[in-house]
Amino acid sequence: MASAPAPADGLIVILPPAPGDPWRFRRVGDQGVGAEEFAAELPEHGSLTVLVPAAHAPVADKPLPAMPVAQALAAERLALAQGGLAAERHIAVGAANGRLLSSRVAAADMDRWLAALAQAGADPQAMVPAALVLPRQESALVLGALGGQLLARTPDAAFAAEEALVDALGEGLDQTALDDDALAERLAQVHAAPPLNLRQGIYAPRRVSVFRTANWLGLARMAAVAALLGLLLMLVWIVKLDLDSNAQEARVLELAQKRFPAATDLDTAERLLTAELARRGEGGASFAAPTAALLDAMRPVPAVKLRDLGYGADGTLRFTAAAPRAEDINAVLIALQDNGWKVTVPPALAPDPTGATVAAITVRTP
């Protein structure tokens, strides 16, 4: 017999055929599979394999058909699901060593076993019919005992070794018994690689999902705290900048009031300063600034001529421009506006008696 693969540390639980009977288990470690033990509670363990009673989970053993394994399993499941009792039965299929294994178990039994395991704090990844612990041998009936249960396996089935079944299914086959060492070796193989796992379909173990494992409430709280801290930091900076701005404005107003005592706020101080600069002919509102801007805008358009030019005390430059075409005057106006000057023009440009286009225009600081 081939040696068993090294099993992972864990536990093999053997469920009793009758409810209420004690569970038996075997520890799995580096030294292999230990002897049977009884306990009111399951010991600490790693991976867990549960062997269900063979009397409740007989297994049919067939050769795999010449088709992909997934297709063969689906076809076998559909074939077993035919009949009126399909809703009351849990159907499990599997493939191992070129054989197609299938079992029909009462859904009530699956519910009862899983409920008892959950009450014991166990959630097994694999539940295997106990009779599959016996090896399959061509032309032989293999018998064995496990957890107080008599098991049997023929080339075509694995079941509880009831006398009637053994006589009917084992007719014409040589009988062989599995000793304890061989049984322990088979247990290790089944624990490492279950040939047929009943935990499939609606009874499959729940997959670990990031949406189940993540602490979303904690993450939401952290996000809310981070957003609140960001808002508080922003408010601190706004208050700081506002205080700095107020301090600068107060300083500017204080300096302006030394020259213009009538200034009560920055707007008043700005108007008084603009008027003073205009009186002196200085600053952006002086005659020189808008006139220089006008002459600079006219330089690329020699066709534009000035017919009159005037300057008001409010800082407004007034002039009349004439040109053969309206486009020439528009070019000057666009240049002034692009340089930041406030320009006003009549709604429409009209020609004078000489045929030239004439427009009365004003320019001032914005």
From TrEMBL:
Subcellular localization, as worded in the UniProt entry: Cell inner membrane
Tagged with keyword Ligase: no
Domain annotation GspL cytoplasmic actin-ATPase-like: ranges: 90-161
Membrane topology: Single-pass membrane protein
Presence of the UniProt keyword tRNA-binding in the record: no
Domain GspL periplasmic: 214-344
InterPro entries for this protein: ATPase_NBD, GspL_cyto_dom, GspL_pp_dom, T2SS_protein-GspL
Annotated transmembrane regions: 216-239
This protein's UniProt keywords: Cell inner membrane, Cell membrane, Membrane, Protein transport, Transmembrane, Transmembrane helix, Transport
Primary residence: membrane
SUPFAM superfamilies: Actin-like ATPase domain
Similarity comment: Belongs to the GSP L family.
Name this polypeptide is given: General secretion pathway protein GspL
Organism of provenance: Novosphingobium jiangmenense
